[in-house]
DNA sequence: GGGGGGACTGACACCGCTGGCCATTCGGGC
DNA sequence: GCCCGAATGGCCAGCGGTGTCAGTCCCCCC
């Protein structure tokens, strides 16, 4: 249906369409850009020709004239392939069909050229918009650059850091609270928590939510049962080894993410403990791994792809004549995925 | 050092540079494009101004004039986040600094609009080049589209499918042969193989290499010990369950990828078998999971990031005045990562 | 001293599209 | 018949670069 009709091999231009539709290229341009001053009749005729010839305007030329590209950037510093790929997919869900493309920009926030690189990327590409997943989303310096470059952006973070139209809040605390309730309801009382590193907001949010959840059941997190991890497998192993060596070891451990939770599993195995018999474990993220390891890990799942889509939709809202601030905002709601790594404590 | 000097906030243009360097914008253009017809003196002067003002030419305008964008596309249909992210990273390793950006284009090869979508992407964006990882790299229809659009591309595949300058060959067969030798040298004789689906070249290559490796030790793959999987966890479980139910079950299983290998582990556990005591298992891919599951999985690792980099370097060779065909070509060499899921068979 | 040629540079059109401004046409209300 | 607004076209400039081509300059050689 949309086979380009020009035998020349080169794609059609706006002039071709104008000639074939017997209108001026100005009117074709009006149609493309949804100008309201086009008769319905004319619009249909032009659109027919466009469709017939599979024409789509050259994004470079258009971008040049608009002083803005049709590229959405995603700037991230996230080592989890699962997170990254799902978020990319979500962004693409929203961005395709809007005629935008996704340019990925992983970066190293620890590098001393980090800001210069990001600035140069943003300024040079005149991005249509930028998606900032954690932890880059938490870096105000990046946001400053974006503002200075007059580049729209959406930040994805566990807690609100900005005006609503620039935020997708993931409410990690709610997910952690669910984990807490789950463990409390199973009857656990000696419950431990392994946090992520301080440099991540999610780390605090997950800890806070977990405490809130426990509090609902009249439980308090004993500081003796809290360890700081680094969101890595090894740090999970280490922290859990310490906890399990306690005179009164916990009967359940909530790890700040799945990597650490699986480290906890290893530590339990090393200590000759049965999971979940001797120790219940809950993670956070629902990595693919979580449903492969044995026992399958109970964990909190974030709808990452949806989050990406929602963020991108805020960016493209303007294209559809919507206002990102007033959009009906589906809330991100972390869910608890109960699998086999949790059960009641031994009597 | 590279702080833009224009208080206006807008980035410098070629005209600004021309004025400041007291040359025509054409000469600035020559400097940017490394034209040999610029006096050394002039070039230095222009470069000084460019550096001083942190100028970099607008990719859109340049692309418009060149009839080519500065975007590298990566078109893939690969469900493994690990693979995708590593390959993206590798491509970026090569592409950054060349002034190119990476546009990601996951797709669904099963969709009936697949080819139209890919065509529209390629034609519209006038891509600088395209990276095709498996399995898209094996689709000749995509390659036809690229050729028709006069768009450079590099295919990454387990076996050569094209002229050398358009190929990065991953030699999966060599990796599989290593796995075979490893098992043979451990003393295994009843060795099973779970293949991937027929639709993947890698599936055949891994099978072929495995047989070759066995043959070096005078062993032959007994068809009774071969099952076809689908590169999924579940298919691994299923195939292994069948194999382990055999009257004389294998003492070692080579799975076509890690997903299936981990499925094999589950099947072994379900069958009450000890890994590696009763059953040795080897996978392929070295997913992050492989070093998290228990026992840690022995597997074959492909240098995915390097592969991405090598592919992108072929694309950018022209920019550096090199010829992709004659480049010194580092070979991809899959390596065997021996972990804890393999040992000798019980006597 | 004049001619020739290579090295270097700049003027100008153009890439494909949008925006501004004005002219033109058409149809309808009064 | 007049006026007005909606719909459209024409034209030109401009986005920020590059290609073409025609110089200009300088040096070398006869």
Automatic annotation (TrEMBL), chains A, B:
InterPro entries for this protein: HTH_LacI (IPR000843), LacI/GalR-like_sensor (IPR046335), Lambda_DNA-bd_dom_sf (IPR010982), Peripla_BP_I (IPR028082)
Domain HTH lacI-type: 12-66
Source organism, top-level taxon: Bacteria
Bilayer-crossing regions: none
Pfam (any one): LacI
PROSITE patterns on file: HTH_LACI_1, HTH_LACI_2
Gene Ontology molecular function: any one: transcription cis-regulatory region binding
Signal peptide start-end: none
Keywords: DNA-binding, Transcription, Transcription regulation
Protein name: LacI family transcriptional regulator
Source organism per UniProt: Brevundimonas variabilis
């Amino acid at each position: 249906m949309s086979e380009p009709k020009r035998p020349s091999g080169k794609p059609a231009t706006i002039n071709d369409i104008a000639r074939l539709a017997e209108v001026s290229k100005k009117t074709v341009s009006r149609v493309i850009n949804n100008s309201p001053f086009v008769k319905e009749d004319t619009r249909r005729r032009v659109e027919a020709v466009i469709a017939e010839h599979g024409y789509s305007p050259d994004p470079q030329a258009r971008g040049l004239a608009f002083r803005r590209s049709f590229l959405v950037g995603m700037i991230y510093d996230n080592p989890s392939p699962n997170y990254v790929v799902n978020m990319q997919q979500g962004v693409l869900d929203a961005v395709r069909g809007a005629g935008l493309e996704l340019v990925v920009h992983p970066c190293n926030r620890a590098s001393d050229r980090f800001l210069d690189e990001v600035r140069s990327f943003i300024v040079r590409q005149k991005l249509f918009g930028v998606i900032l997943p954690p932890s880059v989303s938490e870096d105000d310096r990046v946001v400053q650059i974006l503002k200075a470059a007059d580049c729209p952006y959406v930040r994805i973070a566990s807690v609100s850091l900005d005006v609503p139209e620039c935020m997708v809040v993931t409410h990690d605390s709610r997910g952690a609270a669910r984990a807490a309730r789950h463990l409390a309801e199973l009857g656990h009382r000696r419950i431990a928590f392994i946090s992520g590193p301080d440099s991540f907001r999610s780390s605090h949010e997950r800890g806070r939510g977990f405490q809130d959840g426990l509090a609902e059941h009249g439980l308090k997190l004993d500081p003796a049962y809290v360890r700081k991890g680094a969101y890595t497998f090894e740090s999970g192993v280490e922290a859990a080894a310490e906890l399990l060596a306690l005179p009164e070891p916990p009967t359940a451990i909530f790890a700040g993410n799945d990597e650490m939770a699986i480290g906890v599993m290893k530590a339990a195995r090393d200590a000759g403990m049965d999971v979940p018999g001797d120790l219940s474990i809950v993670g956070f993220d629902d990595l693919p791994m979580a449903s492969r390891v044995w026992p399958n890990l109970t964990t909190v799942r974030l709808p990452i792809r949806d989050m990406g889509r929602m963020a991108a939709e805020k960016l493209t809202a303007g294209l559809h004549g919507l206002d990102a601030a007033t959009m009906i905002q589906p809330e991100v709601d972390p869910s608890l995925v109960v699998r086999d790594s949790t059960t009641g404590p031994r009597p």
